[in-house]
Amino acid sequence: MQVKHKRIYFTLLFYLLLNNCSKDIYIDECSTYDHLTTIDTLKLNNKILILGIDGFRSDAFQPNITPFIHSLSNKNTFLNLMHKTEEDTYSGPNWSSILTGVNFQKHGVDDNTFNGNFFKTYPSFFYYLERNFQNINTASIVNWDPINENLLSSDVDFFSENMSTDSLVFQFANDMLLNENPFNADVIFVHFDELDAAGHAYGFSKEIFQYRETLSTLDYYVNNLYNIIQNKRAAGENWLFILVSDHGGDGFGHGDYNNPHIRNTVLLLEHPNMSFKQDKKTNQTDIAPTILEFMGLSSSEFDCKKDGSSILK
Ligand SMILES: [Zn+2]
How far does the centroid of ligand 1 lie from the alpha carbon of residue 305, in Å? Predict the structure, then answer.
């Protein structure tokens, strides 16, 4: 009897799993519906700077290591030091989820090769912005080229290539914001990779000199870029500032989702007067919906596909 029941149970489970898989078909339908897009004209000139720091372990968010970033928590911010990574804790799946708003089971990136991705079905938030705003200028400046090569190069107006150090990334972003070179950007994604490299080489820990020093240098870059945004705000521009990481780390890697130092990472949003859902337990897929809402774009296609939800109140 026991065995028979078990068999029925497993048959049922198998049926449920099969049925779940049919969700894929349902999700594909998101692309074929007649879609409704609305634009909030009051938000037409909103702008966003997204800073991505690869491998930012949450307990290194300390006033003595990241004095500037830490000081932002005294401003009007949403801060989550338990921001959740994908269960697949590589960089590829996590940056993909941050940029597309869907989990890795949908966008299909489960390692750093980006092979087998479904970005045609689940494009980045930049794709939706570019498709709906005629004059928007978008840019992606990254140290880790695969993000641009596999995902963003087809979605943004400007994408960097072969930018092999964080210093170059910083200088380029700085120049773009200060001197409108090559254009006056509205939405910019900037990615720094050297903290992750320091973690892999020396250890992901605030006790490790090289990890700490790299983070302090990034804190300096963040401070500089933020100051430019502050000047633009003073001149009347409405900027949302976002800082996010793909994963934490422990020892020399970041493969184990069950390790809280790996699966918990840093998310910080800052704006002079927006209200945030302060109790929200955020994950990577919440960034893209937040960006589209701040930019005033409501797309029924994106809403049909997305896994996350906006952090704005
Ligand atoms: Zn890594």
Answer: 28
**For residue 294, what are the domain limits?**
33-305
Alpha carbon 281 to chain centroid, angstroms: 15
- Tell me, in angstroms, the distance from the centre of ligand 1 to residue 204's CA: 10
* Ligand 1 centroid distance, CA of 119 (Å): 22
Comparing CA positions, the residue from 70, 48, 50, 72 lying closest to residue 60 is 70
Write out pLDDT tens, residues 180-223.
Answer: 999 999 999 999 999 999 999 999 999 999 999 999 999 999 99
Q: How far is the CA of 230 from the centre of ligand 1 (A)?
A: 31
Span 25-34, pLDDT tens digits: 445 678 766 7
Say how many C-beta atoms besides its own lie within 10 A of residue 226's C-beta: 20
Domain count along the chain: 1
Q: Which of 242, 244, 257, 241 is nearest to 104 (CA)?
A: 257
Please tell me the pTM assigned to this model. Answer: 0.91
What is the distance, to the nearest Å, from the Cα of residue 265 to the centroid of all Cα atoms in its chain?
12
User: What CATH number does residue 259 fall under?
Assistant: 3.40.720.10
259 lies in some domain: yes
